[in-house]
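Researcher: We plan to redesign the surface later, but first we want a full-length starting point. C-alpha cells attached.
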C-alpha cells in the first residue's frame, strides 16, 4: 500500500476533501489523525475508517490556536509515537467582496488559518517528523491563487503566501529529511461545491444544471472531479514514491488550468 505503516495528520476534516483524504489515506495503510474544530465530524470520520478496517485517532483543535496545536502534537506523540506526514487542508475563505468594500481584519482571518495556522501546527509537529528521519508536508491550494477571482482576494492572497511558504520550507527543512509540496485543486464534486452551485443558480436565476455545465466547460477532461478523485494526488506526495519531489506544486484539477489558459 502507498502509505503502509505511516502516521498522517490531516487538518480541516469536514464534509469535503478533508474527509476523502482521511478515508483514502487509511485505505492505503496509514494511521490517520483527523483534525477539525468540530468533534462530532472527526468522530464520524474515525468511525468510518475503523468500520472499514483502518486505524484512526481523532483530535479536535483549531490550527490558529497555539495551545491546540501543542495538544495535537502531544496526542500524536502519546498515542502513536511517530509522525510521517501532514496534510494542510484547513482553510478559510475570509472576506467575500471587492477590496474597497471589505474590512482588512477579514483578510487577516484568512491568513491566520490558511498560512499561519498551517505553519504553527507544523512547528509543533516538527520534532515528531524529524525523529524517525523525516517525512512529508502537503498543502492543499486553490485555483483562486493562480488567477484572481471576483470577491476572493483574501482567500487567493493567503493561499498564494502558503504556496511560497512551502517552497521556502523545502529549502529550510530539506536537510532534515522533510519534503514540502503543494497540490492545487479546482472545482470538486462534493457537498461544498454542490451547495455553492445551488446558490450560484439562485443568484443568477438559472438552473442548477446550467451552473454545472458552466463549471464543466472550463475543465479540459470534460467532467468535474470528485473529492475522492483528487485525494490520491495528495497522498502520492506523502508517499515514498515521491521521495525526490520537494518544493514543487502540481494541479489535480482535471485540466482546469489548461482550459483557462487557452
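Model: Full-length starting sequence:
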Amino acid at each position: 500500500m502507498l502509505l503502509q505503516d505511516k502516521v498522517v495528520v490531516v487538518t480541516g476534516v469536514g464534509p469535503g476533501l478533508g474527509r476523502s483524504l482521511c478515508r483514502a489515506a487509511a485505505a492505503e495503510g496509514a494511521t490517520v489523525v483527523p483534525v477539525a474544530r468540530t468533534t462530532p465530524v472527526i468522530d464520524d470520520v474515525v468511525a468510518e475508517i475503523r468500520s472499514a478496517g483502518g486505524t484512526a485517532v481523532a483530535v479536535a483543535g483549531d490550527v490558529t490556536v497555539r495551545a491546540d496545536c501543542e495538544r495535537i502534537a502531544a496526542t500524536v506523540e502519546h498515542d502513536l509515537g511517530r509522525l510521517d506526514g501532514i496534510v494542510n487542508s484547513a482553510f478559510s475563505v475570509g472576506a467575500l467582496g471587492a477590496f474597497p468594500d471589505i474590512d482588512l481584519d477579514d483578510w487577516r482571518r484568512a491568513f491566520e488559518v490558511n498560512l499561519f495556522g498551517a505553519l504553527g501546527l507544523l512547528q509543533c509537529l516538527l520534532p515528531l517528523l524529524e525523529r524517525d528521519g523525516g517525512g512529508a508536508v502537503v498543502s492543499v491550494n486553490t485555483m483562486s491563487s493562480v488567477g484572481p477571482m471576483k470577491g476572493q482576494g483574501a482567500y487567493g492572497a493567503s493561499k498564494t503566501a502558503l504556496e511560497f511558504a512551502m517552497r521556502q520550507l523545502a529549502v529550510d527543512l530539506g536537510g532534515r529529511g522533510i519534503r514540502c509540496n503543494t497540490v492545487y485543486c479546482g472545482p470538486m464534486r462534493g457537498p461544498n461545491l454542490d451547495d455553492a452551485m445551488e446558490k450560484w443558480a439562485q443568484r443568477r436565476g438559472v438552473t442548477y444544471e446550467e451552473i454545472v455545465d458552466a463549471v464543466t466547460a472550463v475543465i479540459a477532461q470534460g467532467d468535474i472531479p470528485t473529492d475522492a478523485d483528487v485525494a490520491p494526488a495528495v497522498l502520492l506526495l506523502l508517499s515514498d514514491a515521491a521521495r525526490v519531489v520537494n518544493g514543487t506544486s502540481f494541479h489535480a484539477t482535471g485540466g482546469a488550468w489548461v482550459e483557462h489558459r487557452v
